[in-house]
């Protein structure tokens, strides 16, 4: 495979908030007016078999669109399993979010990827999608764009952190800027009274046997991640 071309455009670095136990100040909510043509485009791209990740994606989109000057859009990656297999697995019908193509990623100013974990890594459907981005890699079309991740696992030891770490390699080869949520969610991330997914790497949930749905706290974390990520994407675009 030929070497990727160098992109000479360098994105500025986001300003970090050093307060670990209180929520960071984020841009004020947008008005009801239509966004300008120069709006920051945030794509929320996910794969969800049973709907848990899709639920997080909805909250992340809400958080992103709460930032003035930001437009957020939800996309699904293509399914790789046949309907017969999905039926045997008890998977419900897919939601009506549009299916994204690799080329459409280049239109975004920032991208949040969401997926369930499979053996400590992203699900095969999301990996297949990343494998199809070779053309974008060759041109380094995604270089400098901020990226974040969110996820779902069955258990507390199901790989929420290892999945994040193994996903960073995909972003690195594209030259993307990984934007973890850190501890900007505040003290709620330290709440040990309830089982809750998510980490400094991104929002998350525990699905257990599939019957557990994202809790109120996990949904708040997802909303915050969308809001925080959108504010960083906005700063990066403004400094370009």
UniProtKB/TrEMBL annotation:
PROSITE patterns: FLAVODOXIN_LIKE. GO terms for molecular function: FMN binding; NAD(P)H dehydrogenase (quinone) activity. Its cofactor is FMN. Residues 19-30 have a biased composition (Polar residues). InterPro entries: Flavodoxin/NO_synth, Flavoprotein-like_sf, Flavoprotein_WrbA-like, FMN_Rdtase-like_dom. Residues 1-30 are annotated as: Disordered. It catalyses: a quinone + NADPH + H(+) = a quinol + NADP(+); a quinone + NADH + H(+) = a quinol + NAD(+). The gene is LOC123079401. It comes from Triticum aestivum. Its EC number is 1.6.5.2. This is NAD(P)H dehydrogenase (quinone). GO terms for cellular component: membrane.
């Amino acid at each position: 495979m030929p070497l990727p071309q160098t992109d000479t455009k360098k994105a500025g670095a986001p300003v970090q908030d050093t307060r670990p136990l209180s929520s960071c100040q984020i841009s004020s909510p947008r008005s009801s007016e239509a966004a300008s043509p120069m709006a920051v485009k945030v794509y929320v791209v996910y794969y969800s078999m049973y709907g848990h990740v899709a639920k997080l994606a909805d909250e992340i989109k809400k958080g992103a669109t709460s930032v003035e000057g930001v437009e957020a859009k939800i996309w699904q990656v293509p399914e790789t399993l046949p309907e017969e297999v999905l039926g045997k697995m008890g998977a419900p019908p897919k939601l009506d979010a549009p299916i994204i193509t690799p080329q459409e990623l280049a239109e975004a100013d920032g991208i949040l990827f969401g997926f369930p974990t499979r053996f400590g890594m992203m699900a095969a459907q999301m990996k297949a999608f990343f494998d199809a981005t070779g053309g974008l890699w060759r041109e380094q079309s995604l270089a400098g764009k901020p990226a974040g991740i969110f996820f779902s696992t069955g258990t507390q030891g199901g790989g929420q952190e290892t999945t994040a770490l193994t996903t960073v390699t995909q972003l690195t080869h594209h030259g993307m800027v990984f934007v973890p949520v850190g501890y900007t969610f505040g003290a709620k991330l330290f709440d040990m009274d309830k089982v809750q997914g998510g980490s400094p790497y991104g929002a998350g949930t525990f699905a257990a046997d599939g019957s557990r749905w994202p809790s109120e706290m996990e949904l708040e974390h997802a909303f915050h991640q969308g809001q925080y990520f959108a504010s960083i994407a906005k700063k990066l675009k403004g400094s370009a």
